[in-house]
Amino acid sequence: MASPQPGSPPLAEQYTPPAQDEESHQKEKMVKDQTAKKRGRGRPPKAKPAFKCSTCAECNKTFSSKAQLSKHDRSHTGEKPFVCTDCGKAFMQAICLRIHMTQHSGERPYSCRQCSKSYPTLSKLKVHMRSHTGEKPYFCAECGKSFADPSVFRKHRRNHQGHRPYACEECGKTYTELKDLKNHERSHTGEKPYLCSDCGKAFSRSSSLACHQRIHSQNKPYQCEQCGKGFTQLSSYQSHLRTHSGEKPFLCPQCGKMFSDPSSFRRHQRAHLGFKPYPCDKCSKSCDKAFVASWDLRRHMLVHTGLRPFSCTECDKSFAERSSLNKTHLKAEHIPQPRPRSDFRE
């Protein structure tokens, strides 16, 4: 090989690349792109920017996705796009519709090993199991109350936050959830859309119907170990246990009176507030009579109807109230009273 002449430029500078047409240029670019892709294998993809939603105009709550925000919006608008094809009932969320459909199919694959009660979802079974274990993992830091059910806990938290956006137009009572308002409004309208297929009795709430149907099936899963009495509802069972223990955990802050069950406590509080949500439509024009509890109104209505549904099996007398039959009439007329003891012996 001949050596370069003295004074000539280096070989690298002497080389001139051949002219490149458009087609060969595109091929070269394609090869480079493919090589770059191969080198990039195994690298994590670039993260997409997180969705930043605007604050909910109704309650200032924020969400991490558009789907969650639109789902939340339905709690304010009342929109229920998921409709059951069997009964026409509508739901805000698809999961709620799927759970509801198990009522029609009868599918309840999750069973409790302690009491054989079954549920359509695993989450409902887990909540039920806590009624046996006594576990209450959801703790309210503001009042110290604990809960077994996360949905009940969330509703309780809203009470502390003072966020009760749903108001009754009839009486002004407010609620944290739209479904609670709808249930309450039926107390004014008298609507009872839930019908028992066994006896025809109607109810304003689906939960009341479910509880009633246990009477027909004789299903009382909650048994008192002390006296053997059975109950269809956990809340009734818990209130009954307090009759044995004497516990009265519900304290009235206004007068200091204590109660063993929450329903009696709520009725008592209404007496302080003067709140009587159950008016009599028969005598409201003349005396505007109203009551703090629904059963007070039902008892009062017997005055207008003259109905005396409680009959004595020993005689032909009948009574408007069960207590008048059991506590007064039977004891006085038919149940032999023990003779007074005497320490004097002949």
UniProtKB/TrEMBL annotation:
<keyword id="KW-0539">Nucleus</keyword>
<dbReference type="GO" id="GO:0008270">
    <property type="term" value="F:zinc ion binding"/>
</dbReference>
<feature type="compositionally biased region" description="Basic and acidic residues">
    <location>
        <begin position="22"/>
        <end position="36"/>
    </location>
</feature>
<feature type="domain" description="C2H2-type">
    <location>
        <begin position="222"/>
        <end position="249"/>
    </location>
</feature>
<feature type="domain" description="C2H2-type">
    <location>
        <begin position="194"/>
        <end position="221"/>
    </location>
</feature>
<keyword id="KW-0804">Transcription</keyword>
<feature type="region of interest" description="Disordered">
    <location>
        <begin position="1"/>
        <end position="51"/>
    </location>
</feature>
<keyword id="KW-0863">Zinc-finger</keyword>
<dbReference type="InterPro" id="IPR013087">
    <property type="entry name" value="Znf_C2H2_type"/>
</dbReference>
<feature type="domain" description="C2H2-type">
    <location>
        <begin position="278"/>
        <end position="309"/>
    </location>
</feature>
<feature type="domain" description="C2H2-type">
    <location>
        <begin position="51"/>
        <end position="81"/>
    </location>
</feature>
<feature type="region of interest" description="Disordered">
    <location>
        <begin position="327"/>
        <end position="346"/>
    </location>
</feature>
<feature type="compositionally biased region" description="Basic and acidic residues">
    <location>
        <begin position="330"/>
        <end position="346"/>
    </location>
</feature>
<dbReference type="InterPro" id="IPR036236">
    <property type="entry name" value="Znf_C2H2_sf"/>
</dbReference>
<feature type="domain" description="C2H2-type">
    <location>
        <begin position="166"/>
        <end position="193"/>
    </location>
</feature>
<dbReference type="GO" id="GO:0005634">
    <property type="term" value="C:nucleus"/>
</dbReference>
<feature type="domain" description="C2H2-type">
    <location>
        <begin position="138"/>
        <end position="165"/>
    </location>
</feature>
<feature type="domain" description="C2H2-type">
    <location>
        <begin position="82"/>
        <end position="109"/>
    </location>
</feature>
<dbReference type="GO" id="GO:0000981">
    <property type="term" value="F:DNA-binding transcription factor activity, RNA polymerase II-specific"/>
</dbReference>
<feature type="compositionally biased region" description="Basic residues">
    <location>
        <begin position="37"/>
        <end position="46"/>
    </location>
</feature>
<keyword id="KW-0677">Repeat</keyword>
<dbReference type="GO" id="GO:0003677">
    <property type="term" value="F:DNA binding"/>
</dbReference>
<feature type="domain" description="C2H2-type">
    <location>
        <begin position="110"/>
        <end position="137"/>
    </location>
</feature>
<keyword id="KW-0862">Zinc</keyword>
<keyword id="KW-0479">Metal-binding</keyword>
<protein>
    <submittedName>
        <fullName>Zinc finger protein 668</fullName>
    </submittedName>
</protein>
<keyword id="KW-0805">Transcription regulation</keyword>
<keyword id="KW-0238">DNA-binding</keyword>
<feature type="domain" description="C2H2-type">
    <location>
        <begin position="250"/>
        <end position="277"/>
    </location>
</feature>
<feature type="domain" description="C2H2-type">
    <location>
        <begin position="310"/>
        <end position="339"/>
    </location>
</feature>
<dbReference type="Pfam" id="PF00096">
    <property type="entry name" value="zf-C2H2"/>
</dbReference>
